[in-house]
Amino acid sequence: MAIHPIEFDLERLLLADHHDPFQVLGLHFFDQPPTAAIIRVFQPHALAVRLLAFGESREMYRMRAEGLFEIVIPECDKPFPYLLEASYGDGVRHTFHDPYRFLPQLSDMDRYLFNNGTHYEAYNRMGSRPATIDDVEGALFRVWAPSARRVSVVGNFNSWDGRVHQMRSL
Fold this sequence. Notes:
It is built from 2 helices and 10 strands, in the order αββββββββαββ. The protein has helices at 5-14, 108-115; strands at residues 26-29, 36-42, 46-53, 56-59, 61-64, 68-74, 83-88, 93-97, 127-133, 136-142. The protein has a 4-stranded antiparallel β-sheet, with no helix packed on it. A 4-stranded antiparallel β-sheet has the order 4-3-7-8, with no helix packed on it. The longest helix has 10 residues, at 5-14. The two termini are 32 Å apart.
């Protein structure tokens, strides 16, 4: 029996061994009619996750015991702003923007120059940088780690769990 490609990607994500978790997490569109979208999040410490969008709150389905949640949005064919609300065992609720809903923030030209060794202002693009994207304030984090299997951002905001904010490899 063959494993469906999404199952393979989900397993790699759960093992924190996926080169591009954005392929699995965040907002994705079905490639055939009827139009619909799916949002997937990985919150291993949450008991429940809700999607906050279009003026309403909707419970996300816990698709894997390890903390993968998803929801299908029918009749949706374009990106939209949304928030997530995670509920934890201690009664705490945390509302946050999904970092996996944003496109790469390093331009093709930046990547071209960097890969050619001629990006003379790479120091302005690497490391942690404050940023506002689509009216959402936060931080961008970029690192050059050519031999790394994966890179994650960790801190008290994700219980020091490197599986929660896995970065994409460009």
